[in-house]
Amino acid sequence: GESVGLHLPTLSVQEGDNSIINCAYSNSASDYFIWYKQESGKGPQFIIDIRSNMDKRQGQRVTVLLNKTVKHLSLQIAATQPGDSAVYFCAERGGAGGTSYGKLTFGQGTILTVHP
Amino acid sequence: DGGITQSPKYLFRKEGQNVTLSCEQNLNHDAMYWYRQDPGQGLRLIYYSQIVNDFQKGDIAEGYSVSREKKESFPLTVTSAQKNPTAFYLCASSIDRGYQETQYFGPGTRLLVL
Q: From the CA of B63, how many Å to the nearest CA of chain A?
């Protein structure tokens, strides 16, 4: 999994499998979280977001889970396809009462490789 | 077709030269940002602007300068003082309500030193 500010892990899956990408965040006051996908040589693309008053949100083939107790965020991709191969990174927004209030902080990412 | 555009896609800089990267958005966003991305690393904030004619330094502002004369435009100049400018530069914008909403990114400019 990934921690905001640390190494760049990798995840390798077979086409059709489900993928789970993890992100550990550090600021317990963070109130908003975003997942981005970045393909090689391109800008990051918004995938899905979730606010801290929710613990789950679903999109098309993607689900984000938020566990505030352990400060953990995950992105689940169903029926992973070769086109899903990219770097995935999370971002957190500092909430009220913290020094980074209102500002987004980005993690370094996880490399997802999907094998046909 | 709304979005963020960056130009050029590739830029070559000679020693001692200043170069300017363009960023334009037609999303009517108030806030704009510049990030630097090095291989295998995350995004590092260079400068950001929450409103026209105002901008703040990010974490790695040394050797860079910006201007925000129009809401739609936020150009970044990489000066000769930036000794290691080779990187992928990303511009982003967001609605800013006193706190940042989702940032949307442009396609990036890759800067290389000759």
A: 22
